[in-house]
Amino acid sequence: MFFKLSVLKHMLKDAYKSSGLTVGHMAESDTGEPEGYYAASGWWVVWFNRDKMPKEVKAALVELCGGLPEIGEVFKTMKDMGNQYEIEQKDIYNLPRTFKKCECRFRVTRLLRQQAFDLIRFLQDEKEIQFIKAVSETCISLIDPSAVDQDNGEDMPVGPVTIDPSADFVYWGNNTCYFMVGTRKPIMDDEEETNLWHHFARVRIK
After folding, report:
1. 11-46 confidence digits (pLDDT tens)
2. Quick check: 178 and 171 in contact, CB under 8 A?
3. Nearest to 10 by CA among 183, 142, 173
4. Is 147 strand, coil or helix?
5. Is the alpha carbon torsion for 103, 108, 111, 114 positive or negative?
């Protein structure tokens, strides 16, 4: 996988302790997407090919959830609440399918900004500089190409990419796992921040 394990475990545990962690087991699809497991919070999703999912990630999920879902099954788990079953298998969790449609490449810039209690990182379209996005710096810290298992055929990750320049979700992926995260927006009614974002969209950010 191309995820830093310590960051991933922190994200899983944080979701479990706050809004809840959704975990699902997706069957192989008729359109060629492989069988896999996914875990999601309210603003990110990680997806693993069933046969390539690291044992450390399985162990982290079992520790939080008590076990992994059966094929076709989805549940949401939250601290002190147990597992809630009969949750819909939503298309948004099928990251391999969506990733195939992503043709817009973004570049991770060096620009960071504090937004409320979170540090965000700016991304900029590689071709059209007026398209900028921002994601939590935690998500950038998650991506770790040095963790890729190239000796066993794992590819280097591609990303960040989007379906179109104005899409609200950004993706990374390779032949074993995928990551999706929702993008941030300027704080409403904050004229200074809005003007700053407009300025960033007129320059090539380093």
Report:
1. 999 999 998 999 999 998 887 788 999 999 989 999
2. yes
3. 142
4. helix
5. positive
Both structure tokens of 30: 């008729």
CA 23, chain centre distance (Å): 14
DSSP class of 164: S
Q: Is 191 left (phi over 0), alpha (psi -120 to 50) or beta?
A: alpha
- Cα–Cα distance measured from residue 145 to residue 179, given in angstroms and rounded to the nearest whole number: 13
pLDDT per position as a tens digit, 99-153: 999 999 999 999 999 988 899 999 999 999 999 999 999 999 999 999 999 999 9
Tokens found for residue 53: 């999912």
**Alpha carbon distances (Å) from 164 to 17, 128, 151, 158, 161:** 33, 11, 33, 16, 9
pTM of the entire structure? 0.93
Dihedrals φ, ψ of 40, to 5°?
Answer: -145, 145
Q: The tokens of 192 are what?
A: 């200074």
**Beta pairing partners, 106:** 125
Rounded to whole angstroms, the Cα distance separating 196 from 65 reads 42
Lookup: tokens for 88: 């819909």
Indicate the domain borders of the chain: 5-93, 99-200
